[in-house]
Amino acid sequence: MSATVNSTARQHNSDDLERRIRECVDFFDQPELTHISVERRSAAQHQLRTTGTYQHTLEELRIGAQLAWRNSDRCVGRKHRRSLDLIDARAVSTALTWHRCAGSPFAAPRTRVLFVR
Question: Most buried among 1, 27, 49, 85, by the most CB within 10 A?
Answer without folding.
Answer: 27
